Amino acid sequence: MQILPITPQSCEMDIIRRLLSDAGLPTDDLAEPQVLLWGAAHHGQLVGSVGLEHAGRAGLLRSLVVGPAWRGNGLAGRLCHFAFERARDAEMDALYLLTESAAGYFRALGFAEIDRGEAPPEIAATQQFSSLCPGDAAFMRKRL
């Protein structure tokens, strides 16, 4: 399994959009310059992705998706840990995320649910936070 950077112009972006869309996750702002995406490839086929949105000293973990045939084998965890390392490399202090269905999973990775009012201004200004994710999505933080 390889984890590769994905650029907005790459043909892999369409595959990631389809994976995210099939999982009911937003795709509207993937090409924004502050969003970095990586894809997990098995024998050249993209089977998952993870993204980081830079917002000052904080980041937003996003676009985590694993294709149905690859779920349950630890790939999501590998993608998350890859993103954690990239966030540390970028000297981020904390990662945030929004989720409707995976709060328990992210708790196991060290995230804690917090009130949306505790969002740093840079995170609150992202499209994910302000308009793309529903207001009842769990808002979570992991200190790095």
From TrEMBL:
The name this protein goes by in its record: Amino-acid N-acetyltransferase
Provide the GO MF annotations for this entry.
acyltransferase activity, transferring groups other than amino-acyl groups
The answer to whether the entry has keyword Acyltransferase is yes
Q: Which UniProt keywords apply?
A: Acyltransferase, Transferase
> Which superkingdom?
Bacteria
Q: Where is the N-acetyltransferase domain?
A: 1-144
Asked if the record carries the keyword Repeat, the reply is no
